[in-house]
Prior knowledge:
The protein has helices at residues 18-27, 42-45, 59-62, 84-87, 97-116, 119-127, 133-138, 158-169, 197-200, 223-228, 246-254, 296-313, and strands at residues 2-6, 32-36, 51-53, 70-72, 92-94, 150-154, 173-178, 190-193, 206-209, 234-237, 260-263, 283-285. It has 327 residues and is α/β, with parallel strands linked by helices. The protein has two domains: 2-98 and 294-313, Rossmann fold, CATH 3.40.50.720; 99-285, NAD(P)-binding Rossmann-like Domain (Rossmann fold). Helix 10 (223-228) links the parallel strand 9 (206-209) and strand 10. The longest helix is centred in the N-terminal third of the chain and has 20 residues, at 97-116.
Amino acid sequence: MKILIVHYHRFELWQAPAWMCERLQRAFPQIKFVQLPNYDRVPQEIADTDILIGWSIKPEQFLTALKLKWIHSPAAAVHQLMFPELIKSSVVVTNSREVHGPVVAEHAIALVLALAKRIPQAVRYQAKKEWAQETLWYEHPRPREISGDTVVVIGMGGIGREFTTRAKALGMKALAVRENPKKGAEGADDVFGAGQLDEVLPQADYVLLCTPVTPATTGIINRARLARMKPDAYLLNVGRGPLVDEPALLEALQNRRIAGAALDVFVEEPLPSDSPFWSLDNLLITPHTAAVTERLWERHYQLIVENLTRFLAGRPLLYEVDKERGY
Length: 327
């Protein structure tokens, strides 16, 4: 059996570290592990690969991978793998949704608090050596408490569940929106189907996007839905850029149709230096750092070991993706 590890990214933390292959080889000496530093040799190596650990493969490469049985993505989002040839195949896809859940949820809580307490504005006044107590009070929206506020959580996977637990502990009311509300509220105060989003949005003080990107969720926050939000509500996106109609959001922020936003992700990353988003004083930008943690790859390793053990024993794998739904 051969396992190919190829997980290249320009950001070092997103790359599988060299020790990953070494530790896996020691743990499973009966398996051949090959780890590539980039994608150059994928066409040569994929043909006799049984398991791929990586977040992407080209359709033409997939068609030559006749032995491939399982793809494990070290990302939570797998939309880049959802091409027709793979969807129709018997190849199993798993993702790392629970690996990223706790740390991204922490980041989302930090964004909520930063917006509520007007931290970005305070930092700007600090840079100008201005004691802005009265200024911050008279600006709109004012600094406020989050206890008692309502957050609408769109997507109740690993991130949504972990965020809801933390938000509830801080006294917030959480309303969950998910494709299948029959799966339950997962700790939220109430749960709604995706078709009920329009009626839920006017209740929100904060709207958190942490749902996968699918044809149904692409552009889920558009001009019409931004118009349904309260003028003093905030939008937060720690999912993926395509969940938001960016031109519509830009217009809403420029016209102060909503209080503000916090975005960790964008359609184009890195965000171009000439993007008008950079100059908005009611937008908090974090550069796709919600999942950044020194513990990241140790968590990945533990999940891979658990699932590989299950695979060899013929047991169900953790976090298998429904390829028809895309998550």
